[in-house]
Hints:
Blueprint: H1 3-11, H2 16-26, H3 30-40, H4 46-60, H5 73-84, H6 88-108, H7 124-128, H8 147-154, H9 160-172, H10 176-180, E1 187-188, E2 193-196, E3 205-208, H11 211-223, H12 244-254, H13 260-273, H14 278-285, H15 303-320, H16 327-330
Antiparallel strand pairs: 1-2, 2-3
Helix pairs in contact: 3-6, 4-6, 5-6, 8-12, 9-11, 9-13, 14-15
Amino acid sequence: MRAQELLGSIALGNDPAEERRSRRAASVTLSEAFEDYLRSRKELKPGTITNYRKVMGGCIGDWLGIRLREISKDMVEARHQKLGSTAPARANNAMRVLRAVFNHAMAKYEDAQGRPLIQANPVDRLSQVRAWYPTTRRQTIIKPHQLSAWYEATLQLNEVCTRDLLHVLLFTGLRKTEAATLEWRGVDFDDGTLTIKDTKNRDPHVLPITERLGAILRRRQTESDALWVFESPVRPGEPLREPRSAVRRVAELSRVPFTLHDLRRTFITTAEGLDIPHYALKRLLNHRDPNDVTAGYIISGVDRLREPMERIEEALCERIGLELLTRSEASI
Length: 332
C-alpha cells in the first residue's frame, strides 16, 4: 500500500494491518486452505492424513492452485458427477473432504470487519439437490461352510507371518491395522492379555488371549524378536502391510473371495449368533457410542471378556474343523 493510500486508510479509521490480512485471506488457494485444515485438526491420524492427500490429489488435484473464492457450486457439482460416473464412493469421499476444508475456511478467514470471506460452502449444493451417490456398507463374511476351505488355503501360504496375521484377524475381530501394528510390549502372557494402544477411536483396546490365539502368538515370539508381532518379511523393522497378494492367493485356492475386513465381520457375526451380551460384544470390538449413556456407567474388566472370546473361538474352530487345543498345546 502506497504511503498516500496508507494515510488515507488510516484517516478513514481503517486498520492497514487488518486490511493486509484480509487481502491475504482472500487470495488463499485450496492447497493452502487444505494444509491449514490438516494442521488445525490435531486428532487426525497419519493414515487419515495420507488418505486425505490421496483423495485431494487424485480427484481435484487440478484445483489445488485455485483460490477458494473461485471454486463454485457448479464446479463442485460437475466434478462430483464426473468422478461418480466410474467411482461413486470415491466421488462422495472427495467432496466430503472438500466440504470439511471449506467449513474450516469459513470459520477462519475473515475480512477487515471480521466477516467470513467465504459466505457459503459450495459442496452444500450436493445436499440441496440430493446429488450424493447412495452407498451401502459391505455385508460380506466368510460363511460357516466356507471357513474350512478358507483356513486350509491359508496354510498353503509361503509366508508364515502373513498366515498368522490372517488367523489372528479371524480369532480376534481386530481391524487390519490394529493387528498388523501390534507390538510385543502389548502382549502379556502372564496376564493373558494383548493391548492395542493406537485404535480407530483412540481408546486402548485390551483383549484376553485365548488358547489358540496364545499358541499363535507364542510361536511368533520364537520366530521374531522384533518390535512388531507381525514384522514385514520384506521390510525389516516395519510392520506387515496389507498382504494383497496373499489375500488373492487364498481366495483363488479356496474359491472364497474375501477382504481382511470380512474377517472382522465373520468374528462379529459368529459372536452375535452365540447371543454374546450386547455390551460384551461392544467391548470385544472396541466400539464406542457417544449416545449410549448407559455404557459409560458399565465398568467391566478384561476377564469378563474371556468367556465370550473362548466361546467365539470354539465356534470358529468347530466350523473350520479344528480341535480345541489342550492346555499343554496352547502353552507351546
